[in-house]
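User: I'm curious whether this sequence folds into something compact or stays loose and floppy. Could you predict its structure so I can see for myself?
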Amino acid sequence: MSSLENAASGSRPVERPAAVRAASIAAELVSGGSLEMGARRPEDAREIASLLPAGTPVYVNHLPGHPILDTISTLVAVRKAGLEPIPHIAARRIEDREELRTFLERAVDEAGVRKALILGGDEPEPTGPYADGAAILREDFLTGCGLREVGLPGYPEGHPRIPAAAIERSFAEKMMLAARHGLGTYIVTQFSFAPARIVDYCARMARSAPGVPIYVGMAGPTNPVALLRYAQRCGVSASLRALRTQGMDAVRLVTHTDPELQLSALAHYCAVHAECNVVGVHLFTFGGVTSSAAWMNRYIASRGSPA
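Assistant: Here's the prediction. I'll summarize afterward.
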């Protein structure tokens, strides 16, 4: 007898074991998740659409040295493939206010964009007037262009160049600015190789920002050398150092590390903490968007399997 049948008959529902609940939650987190793709490969949109449910959020990156308007064609391709396009907007790579306004207007009009992930960007000096994500959110034309929701970055391992206290102040300011404009907010975290750090971050955010949905970033299946390069650049070297103490060299370690490890730990956390505000995972694909979509497909298919 199912839980719904138990409820209808008035008998006490059968409590599923924690491991079974966690497996179901893992599939739900992937089903409700997202992934990113390269702005210069619009042709990938149709292929990943064959592997993912209609409406899956797909983030289009904003590459250094490339105008953000160059991403429009890929955003349009994602929408035409039946997926939801969400652009990265890297503040330090925007040349001026007109470029940002024109981009948002075209992205909304041509690709049906409603959400954007607002990032600072890695450049040592801003290209234009925006030094960080908060500077973007101070603009008064965001909702007028049609934007309705913004993603904000989260850092389970901290930021390689920004102190933790500054990150907390910046997050609070961005939340205030978004609310002032009537923009919805959610968090997309940086990936980590240390499940305990991910769980700790999610627990802290559940206490400090309980109404804000979290998408937990994970490294999708990729070449281990590429993954190491991105990890060191993105500031997750702390978890690399910690894992090296287990006696494995970095390349063997990353080859052995699969998104399943992080996903399993996250699902077990959500299974036993009712206050968990994690709603999905977000896969960083490092150019391997098709293999990441296939990995998601496997988990989404498992959701329909009998428990």
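Summary: The domain at 32-302 is CATH 3.20.20.220 (TIM Barrel). The longest strand covers residues 84-90.
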